[in-house]
Amino acid sequence: MKALVKVTLKNGVLDPQGKAIHQALGSLGFDGIDQVRQGKLIEIDLNENDEAKAHAQVEKMCEKLLANMVIENYSIELEAS
Amino acid sequence: MKALVKVTLKNGVLDPQGKAIHQALGSLGFDGIDQVRQGKLIEIDLNENDEAKAHAQVEKMCEKLLANMVIENYSIELEAS
To answer: Where are the domains of chain B?
Structure first.
């Protein structure tokens, strides 16, 4: 099955990349934007077909490698592939 | 309202970052992974409250700045903030 992991910065953590996008959008004439935050999107194709097992496995991956738990949050979505 | 933009590499486009994650997961003992692809996740807080207008605006942002249409796809999700 396929796992979609969203890794986003926690609230309060500075996001220079998001700020740069915000400014670039502003200079292109896009007004009315309050905030831009940039995160990561990781798609993982797993052999595992059991949803509970796949979720547990991906959770471990997030905690060990994909997300920096000090400054980032993650969320996991699973879909049958 | 809040827009969530997912920018992913098109199929067939090489993804060295995804490959690096794949290998790192393998060396941490996570087996049974077929493929890893990394994309970008951009959260935009908009002042616009009309869904159709917001969607059109974010679509323009994607085409002008957020996504490289030659090698990337994008998808837009809107939610009331």
So the answer is: 2-79
CATH architecture of A2-79: 2-Layer Sandwich (3.30)
pLDDT in tens, B6-39: 999 999 999 999 999 999 999 999 999 999 999 9
Q: Which residue, among B7, B23, B15, has the nearest Cα to B76 in the 3D structure?
A: B7
Choose among B24, B36, B44: nearest Cβ to A43.
B36
pTM, two decimal places: 0.93
The C-alpha of A46 sits at a distance from chain B's nearest C-alpha, in angstroms, of 5
**Whole-number Å distance between alpha carbons of A18 and A26:** 12
